[in-house]
């Protein structure tokens, strides 16, 4: 495991502390890990679909391509938002 030291503006530090205080995350590390994992999932999803979309000049996307993109989007991690904050 790697240890990182980061500097945050006061407004982001307050946000981070509210997330931990809400009980959604046990620590700043848990919150940052969750953000990084979600970012990685999104980047992988975009990369996969960029390859499919890049072929428009050569071949159009099929209906199956669209279905696969929708299914992949459903697999993206959900935000941890309690019902009262939606």
Summary?
This protein is mainly alpha-helical and 86 residues long.
Topology (elements, then pairings):
Blueprint lengths: L9 H12 L6 H26 L9 H12 L12
Describe the fold and architecture:
The protein is mainly alpha-helical. The chain has one domain (11-78). Helices cover 58% and strands 0% of the residues. It is built from 3 helices and no strands. The protein has helices at residues 10-21, 28-53, 63-74. The longest helix has 26 residues, at 28-53. The chain is elongated and about 50 Å long. The relative contact order is 0.10.
- The dominant shape is elongated
How are helices and strands ordered from N to C? HHH
Mean pLDDT: 76
Helix content: 55-70%
Number of strands: 0
Sheet having the most strands: none
Total helices: the number is: 3
| Overall tally of structural domains | 1
Q: Strand percentage, roughly?
A: under 5%
Q: What structural category characterises the helix and strand content?
A: mainly alpha
Give the radius of gyration: 18 Å
Ranges with pLDDT <50 over ≥5 residues? 79-86
First-to-last CA distance: 34 Å
Keywords:
3 helices, 58% helix, disordered C terminus
